[in-house]
Predict the 3D structure of the following.
Amino acid sequence: DTGVSQNPRHKITKRGQNVTFRCDPISEHNRLYWYRQTLGQGPEFLTYFQNEAQLEKSRLLSDRFSAERPKGSFSTLEIQRTEQGDSAMYLCASSLGRGQNTEAFFGQGTRLTVV
Amino acid sequence: AQSVSQHNHHVILSEAASLELGCNYSYGGTVNLFWYVQYPGQHLQLLLKYFSGDPLVKGIKGFEAEFIKSKFSFNLRKPSVQWSDTAEYFCAVNGYQGGKLIFGQGTELSVKP
């Protein structure tokens, strides 16, 4: 499968613990996005990278959240000191660079449950 | 502010009925428009997209959408739905140079056999 891959698919954690998710984009895609989706809502933008540079970060993203894409390939999203409100589906997407090549391909997501 | 509004949260249709899902957006400048579909248990998949040109775009599985610039709308249509179209549908927008997508809240479509 050469699509966007996310791991783990499910994560249950206790409040206050740290969690890290991984996303492997489609190999030739230089843009990588993170979104969060809660029940009954559309995905909400969190942050995005072009190659290894983090170009935009949502105001929704508290300082407990950090994302990296160290070599411009895979990315990680870390949540420190998780709270129950962090429970959601975390989606990763990737796309080619600029102009009309902006179709984003999504992974299957990581479902986080904070208990 | 940039936003996307989908008119219906839940639509229930019988097979062979026609479908129209509304989508309006607020976004400054030239836009790209998308409809994504999420079948139960699956990831978001692109149904169709509008970048420029003919405002009537055709997508997969018999879906089409019409971009009406004056109304800031991008409504999704299908003349005859099937049970397999049961899914959640999301309208999304971004700027001409790409970047983050702004999604609507989604419309859940249930098609009764």
